[in-house]
Structure formats: structure tokens, C-alpha cells
Amino acid sequence: MNKKTAPIREIASDLYMITLPMPFRLGHVNVYVLANGGKAVLFDTGLNINESRGEFGAALDTLNLSPVDIEHVFLTHFHADHCGAASHIRQASGATIHMSEQGARQIQKLDEMNAMIERTGSYLKAHGLPEKTIGFIEKFFILFRQVTSPFEVNAVIQPHDIITVGTRTIEAIPTPGHANGHICFYLKDDGILISGDHVLPDITPNLGPDLFDSSFFPLEAFLASLAGVRELPVSMVCPAHGAPFPGLKGRVDEIIEHHRVRKQVVLDAVRKKERSTYLIACEVFENNLTEFDKFLALNETYVHLLELEKEKIISRKTLDNGIIHWSA
Ligand SMILES: [Zn+2]
């Protein structure tokens, strides 16, 4: 039986994009391989599922590489589609797994699934998400956990660390926002930014709180991180979802504008009527959302409310039933 090979695209000399399958929304995730004289460095890993690992191995094979040749794995963030197969690759090759400090902490937290589910459940409940949807999200978290096999981070990436691969130097650009501790990898000589989920061509990445770090303000961090990459001389953005694209600045400006407008829409909704995050989300987003989309819509609304609260434009109060209401 022929093994299915994931699509490969050569981005620059020795740099390849491999598009791996993902049975969730978006349907795929891109990982990037930098070949270096029979060895390789990998940026993100795809999910820890047979289909993805099989296609990844077959794709490496066409490059005359195998998982055994991977010396380093650099991870953009802790979501399963980005780091799920890290432990599998480490087992195969002994590769060093590099990740930000916050990412490493979040990976540890995945092992405390009960605490994670409990905290997520009370956050969602306080913000008015219906019980049925909360039950669905808890199940989703468990599933998501199953497609990330546990691994240890062997090397913590510090902001602006310089990584040398062959003759190339790569800078780790801190880009917290979509995830606390998110990192983009900037290949200076090539003018390439491996952007993870920070800058995507077709969608804006979902923003949500880090329930274990209340000092993390997702929207504020995300906008600062967008400003942090905007001026980089980049000719090609290599995202984790969607096709590589030129025009980083223009895309950054679109995303910033999207959040400016959304923040205003959220504020208008609060001014109209005092209510919970979920009910505000129901007004801001279209009806007929799937259970998962309700969760994303709540997160997205919450991060804008959090920002408006920080600016003292709105305030929250907790009702006797534990539900948080916002008012202008
Ligand atoms: Zn992500």
C-alpha cells in the first residue's frame, strides 16, 4: 500500500513547508523543515495522530530525510496542532525541544487536566456560557489533550534569542497574544517570518485568557506583538494555516483595524444593555453558532471587554448567581 505523502512546498533554499492533516476546523496545519546537511530543524510538529505522523514521515522521505534526522524542534505555542507530535519526534531522534517559558508552563498544565477543566468551567460559567456548551468544551479539551502526547521542553527560548542553523541565523520574536508565550521565527537573510498563528492570511487568530496568568491581557499583548513584527523587513510570511503570503504590513494593519472595529461593536453592545459576556457575544456574533464557535465567540468578546475594563470605560459586577455582568 502506498503511503500518503503530505504536500510539500519549497519556500527557500533548504526550507520546506509541509502541510499536515488535522481533523478539526481549518483541516490542515503547516510545519516548516529547514534541512541542514543531512540533518534538519523543524518548526512546529502537527498533531500526534497516526495520519499526520505517517504523512510527515513520507514527506521527509521525499527530502531524503527521516524523523531520526531532526536535531531541533522549535515550537511557536502549546496548541495541539503545533506541538502535538513533539514527544514522538524526540523519541525517534532525541531532538532538543525548544519553547518559550510560558509555553513550557502551559504544557505542564496540560498534565493537570482536571485543574484545567475546573478553571475553564468556572470561567465559562461566570461569563454565562450555557451548561450544555460547557460540557461540550470540556470534552473537546480532553480530546485536544489526547492529540498532544506529553513532552518535556529541553531548552527555553528567550525573547530575541538567535538560533544558528548552518549559515542561517534565525531570531525568536516574542509574539504573545493568540497564546501567552507565542513565538514567531524570523529568518533574516531570507526575509521570511514563520508566523505560527500570530499572523494568518485568511482569519484572525482566536484570543482568549490564560486562566493561570491574570497578568496576561490577550488583546493588548496581541496588538503589541503585531506592532512588534510590522516593521520587520519580511518578503514572505509563512503561517501555520493557509498559504504563505507577501505583504506582512498590510495584513497586520487589517488585523489591527478588525480589532478596533470589534472593540467598538462590543462597547456599543454594553452601552445598549447591561448583561453577561455570553449575551454580548450573541449580539456581536451571528446566530446559529456551533457549540465550539460559541466558546470562541465568548473568548473573543471577553478579551475586548477586558481591555475596555482596563481603560475604565466599562465595569463588571458579579450577580448573586455568580454570573458577571458588564455595564458602561
Ligand atoms: Zn493556536
Which terms summarize this structure?
alpha/beta; 10 helices; Metallo-beta-lactamase, Chain A; 7-stranded mixed sheet; 5-stranded mixed sheet; 328 residues
Structure characterization notes:
This protein has one domain (8-314): Ribonuclease Z/Hydroxyacylglutathione hydrolase-like (Metallo-beta-lactamase, Chain A, 4-Layer Sandwich). The strands form 3 sheets. Strands 1-2-3-4-5-6-7 form a 7-stranded mixed sheet. It has a 5-stranded mixed sheet with strand order 8-9-10-11-12. It has 328 residues and is of the alpha/beta class. It has 10 helices and 14 strands. Helix 7 (218-230) packs antiparallel against helix 8, helix 8 crosses helix 9 and helix 8 (248-272) crosses helix 10 (291-310). The model has no long low-confidence stretch (mean pLDDT 94). The protein is globular. Bound molecules: zinc ion (ZN). Zinc ion binds next to loops.
Short description:
This protein has 10 helices and 14 strands.
Report the mean per-residue pLDDT as an integer. Answer: 94
Strand order of the largest sheet: 1-2-3-4-5-6-7
Shape: globular
The CATH architecture can be named as: 4-Layer Sandwich
Tally of strands:
14
Q: Number of domains in the coordinates? A: 1
Distance between the termini: 63 Å
What is the top-level CATH class? Answer: Alpha Beta
